[in-house]
TrEMBL record:
SUPFAM superfamilies: FAD/NAD(P)-binding domain (SSF51905). Residues 5-281 form the FAD/NAD(P)-binding domain. Keywords: Flavoprotein, Oxidoreductase. One of its GO terms (molecular function) is oxidoreductase activity. It comes from Brevibacillus antibioticus. It comes from the Bacteria. Homodimer. This is NAD(P)/FAD-dependent oxidoreductase.
Amino acid sequence: MNQLMDVGIIGGGPAGMSAALALGRARKNVVVIDEGRPRNRVTRESHGFLTRDGITPSEFRRMAREQIRAYSSVYFVEDTAVTITGHDGNFLITTAQGTTYQSKKLLFAVGMTDLPLPVNGLADVYGKSAFVCPYCDGWELRDQPLVLIANGEKALHLAKVLSGWTKQYTICTNGPDEFTEEQRLELLQHRIPVCDSPIERIVSVDGMVQRVDLADGNSISCTGIFFAPKLVAGSDLPQALGCQITETGTVIVDNFGKTNVPGVYSAGDAATTQYQVITAAALGSAAGMSINNELLLEAWNRQS
Ligand SMILES: Cc1cc2nc3c(=O)[nH]c(=O)nc-3n(C[C@H](O)[C@H](O)[C@H](O)COP(=O)(O)OP(=O)(O)OC[C@H]3O[C@@H](n4cnc5c(N)ncnc54)[C@H](O)[C@@H]3O)c2cc1C
């Protein structure tokens, strides 16, 4: 595509698509480059988005695309952005398929990636009866016996949050526990069992967990699992372009999604630690409007 687009959006999840909707309605030329690996693709139902509670992620995506198609200045491309060079006013995006796109502004809506935990059988239950976020999937597992796979501070945090949905859960640290004496005492006071034996395997039927077998020979029966995933940035491109990143891989932005690099924005999971579809969509929309304002102001000032 030889045309200089107004905005290049990398990532077509809820954040990228919300930005595209705002920009399409603002009559901007937009290319959305998306490789199609959203974080929640493993899950059967997405919860908590007002008016769309329980929708499948693929249906959410289909509806979003269909509605955005009404704005003909928005182009969707199924590809991976691999390098980006240039500067505010003229960025050059090169994709894995070797196509190049030019845009005045950039939005990184690349999400985060969950690295799989090295636990036998977890892949079979992930998204079906094993989840990462009680706000997303806690309701479906309320009052049920659960196993929480996490260690140290993360386990304590998850235990506190999960206590709103069920009182029956066991923490499996999958190896030596990393709790401080104070944390151990806190868990004891709340009568939360902790198993530090390595996990042998998760036993399941059709994606529904039955029990967790431990290397010490014990088994824990349960109907669900929550675990603390290791999260990394969805793409290295923001950092490669000079965007400031936190230690945990989140792009640092202001209230309007603006990064420290002129003309470059970020939104959604990539730029917040509040991992929710509705939050990602809201941040994407705000970033889209902010980019539009910047473009309008630049055009206005050129004319004066
Ligand atoms: C198991 C699980 C269940 C969840 N359930 C819920 C739920 O019930 N309710 C809820 O609100 N939230 C849920 N979430 C969180 C939700 O998935 C995220 O908050 C949301 O997807 C973030 O949207 P996003 O647009 O920022 O990123 P994503 O949806 O992850 O989209 C990012 C997109 O960018 C693409 N991309 C990345 N790099 C490139 C590149 N270089 N070139 C092209 N494309 C690229 C990716 O392939 C992806 O398609 C869940 C998460 C998980 C892991």
